[in-house]
Structures are given as C-alpha cells and as structure tokens.
Amino acid sequence: SGKQASLTSFFGAS
Amino acid sequence: MFEARLPQGDLLKKILEAVKDLVTDANFDCSSTGISLQAMDSSHVSLVSLLMRADGFDHFRCDRNISIGLNLLAMSKVVRCVGNNDAVTMKADDNGDLVTLMFESQDGSKVSDWQLRGLDIDSERLGIPSTDYSSVVTMPSAEFARICRDLSVIGDTVVITTTKEGVTFASKGELGTGKIALRQSAAIDDDADSPGVSIELQEPVSQSFALRYLSFFTKATPLAPTVTISMSNGVPLVVEYPVGDMGHIRFYLAPKVED
C-alpha cells in the first residue's frame, strides 16, 4: 500500500 | 534566566501526553516571544511543531534565548502529577542544565517542586515551507480519533480524499476494506463541544498516509474539540490542534507514495 516517503525529502534543514 | 507560569497546568500535561510516544528527546526553544518545539520521530516520517506564545502565560521572563533539552517521557511522568486546576511554573538557569517545574494548587494549599536534568540535544531545525493547502478540513477531534482507530482494524494505510461534497477516509487490508465518509455539516447551535465538519477546497486531494502516525497525533485530542487537517497532493499533511488561545500543536506527516 505504497512506500513511506521521508519528511526530510520535503523539508530542508533551515 | 527563564521563568514562565502557566495558570492552566493541564495544558502542559495534555501536550506531553500528545508528543511523548512520537518523540523521545526534544528542545524547548525559549525566547521573549514564547516557547517553541520542533522534533521529528526517529524514522523521520513525521514532525511535531509546538508553539506557546508568551502572552498566554501569566508571567513570562526570558532574558536570553535558550534551548532546554528534555527527555519527554521523563517530563510526561512528572507532569502527570499536575492537578487539573494547578498552575505550572517552569524555570531554568541560563544554560538550561537544570529545569525546575513547580505545581501550585489553585488555593495555594499545595506546592510541589520537581527538578529535571537538562539534556544537550543536537537537533537540526527543518525549514517548513509556508504552503497554501488545496484542502483544509476542520472536524471534531474525537471523530478524527475514532476514524483512525476504526480504520486501523482493517489496514495500516488510509487514503484521505476531499471533494466538494465531503471527505472520505478509506483503508484496505487482507480482511477487507473500510470507508468512512463525512459530509460538510453545520455546528450544532455553535456549541464548541459539537463542532461540525467544514471543508475549504481549492482543489480536491487524494493521498495515502500511515494510520500508525495519524493515531499518534490523535493523542492530542484532549487539547481541543476541533482538529484541522490541511492537505495538498504530493506534500506532507498537517494535523493541527489549538493549545488554548496561546498557540498550537502541529503534526506533519509525509505521504505514502506509489512504489
């Protein structure tokens, strides 16, 4: 049922 | 020095209950504007972001910005001792090595003092882009918690779909499938305890999320009668609960994508 994406691929380090 | 007194100590108790299973250690970043916390779970799939503005405290003093690192499980055990009508005062020295939590009963007849060792936590802060979400669903927080619980019986993933008509939550697994549809509805007599379901829709959204994480987020249900779920296709969703009228707790969750 789909592969879990990582949050860090959406939000970069500030 | 840092010192902040929160008249509604039970808010802190509810916040800790909401985050302690998701995040082990976290920094409370204190500045003159208030307290914020940002932390990811260990698998970097979800993120919790807490804001408590200084004006929500009846006393707030922060001479210089400090990060107070704490083990949230230890803190939640201490904060569980807060009586529902107690005030809580948090204090820390300038380097955040030692944190004092003081609970006072409403009539002043009981005062308890707790000290927790501050931790040196090296956490990177993520830049969360500000986004206009395609669909924003506001619904009773207890209903959202119940849907996550009920669908977990069937599968580990929920597909959340918004349309003009309403929002559906669907799951499938080896046992079968389940689907729960909510239509937009008005609040009952504007009663905050019986909020309705509302959807602000720029564009329909259909996206898959892990129920395990959404269920973690619903531990924040006692904080507020309503929850807001903001979504756009292809980006993390945000589940937001207000913290009194002083801030919010937001949970971000990366979607599940096609293999």
Concise description?
The complex is a heterodimer of chains A (14) and B (259). Chain A is mainly β and 14 residues long.
What is the fold's blueprint, element by element?
The complex is a heterodimer of chains A (14) and B (259).
Chain A lengths: L2 E2 L7 E2 L1
Chain B lengths: L1 E5 L2 H11 L5 E7 L2 E7 L5 E8 L5 E4 L3 E6 H8 L7 E6 L5 E7 L6 E7 L8 E2 L7 E6 H11 L5 E6 L3 E7 L4 E7 L14 E4 L3 E6 H7 L8 E6 L5 E7 L3 E7 L2 E2 L2
Antiparallel strand pairs in B: 1-5, 1-7, 2-3, 2-6, 3-4, 4-19, 7-8, 8-9, 11-15, 11-17, 12-13, 12-16, 13-14, 17-18, 18-19
Write structural notes for this entry:
The complex is a heterodimer of chains A (14) and B (259). Chain A has strands spanning 3-4, 12-13. The radius of gyration of chain A is 10 Å and the shape is rod-shaped. With 14 residues, chain A is mainly β. Chain A is 0% helix and 29% strand. Chain B has 259 residues and is mainly β. Chain B contains four helices and 20 strands. In chain B, the strands form three sheets. Chain B has a nine-stranded antiparallel β-sheet with strand order 6-2-3-4-19-18-17-11-15. In chain B, a hairpin with a 5-residue loop joins strand 17 (226-231) and strand 18 (237-243). In chain B, helix 1 runs antiparallel to helix 2 (72-79). The mean pLDDT of chain B is 93. The chains are: A mainly beta (14), B mainly beta (259). Chain A binds chain B through residues 1-14, and chain B through 40, 44-47, 124-129, 155-157, 172, 208, 210, 235-236, 252-259.
